């Protein structure tokens, strides 16, 4: 006899907890592109005028599937003043220049918003670490995490209801925090991390950053009812940072967040781009509840059924696997038959366990044919339905 129907959020939480419900969740990563397409707005209007959690709700419900999203809230930083200047470069691009005054100096940065693409950084805050790091640290870590805007997170969580799993964004690993503020981004940050003269300062910053994100996670758990917290990813992965530096700088931060969140009775989800096979065992060791997106080549290294079976062996029913349907080669360029074949591979490797979410290998592109999305969701529903 069929199992009792669950809500979208319940299916996601069941998978995170390793509990078998009515069926496994199918969760395309609808992030920016597809919700903007569904709502009929450009990327500038989407980023500035559309509540993100509501856009995801509309999109998940349109396709009759599950999913996850994030709600964001910051803590006020004392003695900091922002000044922004906007300038349209043409009818499609908007440049925003930021000036940040702190007790430790003034920082400048600039972003570009585009009607067709999500915005990106043109200029980052830390040009000269000797001059700018103290101001950057004060700006990003100087506030009290307990003063974060918990009401905004809770309000978004209530508005989403049972539609999908809205998670609290707790932050990013250490390298991404540092590189995200460093002029030159990943490339310049890597040189800083290889500079012996920078090592003492980086160790000091690592300890301070870890303490801050742990206190932030504690505050989210204390002040909000959200069931799960998510750790993001920019460059902190095997494809860019590599296993050695990831284990040295980022794994300890992820572990510290996971431990405090579990002590508070909540769940932890890690979003990890790119190649990951060399560190899958580390993810199980940390004790994360869910990791995504376990991408296929060329962006990732989880290749076909053999790769999925190796992930299943390494995770050992301790961590939920979310992902693996290729967003470009299969969902955009493939046929419905190609899509169904990849879902079948996920089922062959993970059909024995409730610790699976049939997700996509990162964000679904706006070019994705709806026929492929419907084939993906339909095949997952067909294969991953459970009996009571």
| Separation, N- and C-terminal Cα atoms | 6 Å
Give the biggest beta sheet: 8 strands, parallel
Which range best describes the helical content: under 10%, 10-25%, 25-40%, 40-55%, 55-70% or over 70%? 40-55%
Low-pLDDT runs of 5+ residues are none
Question: Number of DSSP strands?
Answer: 12
Name the beta content range. 15-25%
Mean pLDDT: 96
The total number of structural domains is 1
Taking strands numbered 1, 2, ... along the chain, how are they ordered across the largest sheet? Answer: 1-12-11-10-9-8-7-2
CATH topology: TIM Barrel
**Shape annotation:** globular
Total DSSP helices: 14
Structural class: alpha/beta
Question: What's the layout of helices and strands?
Answer:
Elements: H1 8-17, E1 26-27, H2 33-39, H3 43-49, H4 52-63, E2 68-71, E3 81-88, E4 93-102, E5 105-114, E6 120-123, H5 129-141, H6 150-160, E7 165-171, H7 174-181, H8 185-193, H9 199-223, E8 228-231, H10 242-263, E9 267-271, H11 280-286, E10 290-292, H12 304-315, E11 320-325, H13 336-350, E12 356-360, H14 370-383
Parallel strand pairs: 1-12, 2-7, 7-8, 8-9, 9-10, 10-11, 11-12
Antiparallel strand pairs: 3-4, 4-5, 5-6
Summarize the structure.
The chain is α/β, with parallel strands linked by helices. It is built from 14 helices and twelve strands. The chain has one domain (8-79, 126-383): TIM Barrel, CATH 3.20.20.210.
Describe the protein.
- The protein is an alpha/beta fold.
- The chain has one domain (8-79, 126-383): TIM Barrel, CATH 3.20.20.210.
- Helix content is 44%, strand content 18%.
- The protein contains 14 helices and twelve strands.
- The chain has an eight-stranded parallel sheet with strand order 1-12-11-10-9-8-7-2. It has a four-stranded antiparallel sheet with strand order 3-4-5-6.
- A hairpin with a 2-residue loop joins strand 4 (93-102) and strand 5 (105-114).
- Helix 2 packs across helix 4, helix 7 (174-181) packs across helix 8 (185-193) and helix 12 runs parallel beside helix 13 (336-350).
- The longest helix has 25 residues, at 199-223.
- The chain starts with 7 loop residues before the first helix and ends in a 5-residue tail after the last helix.
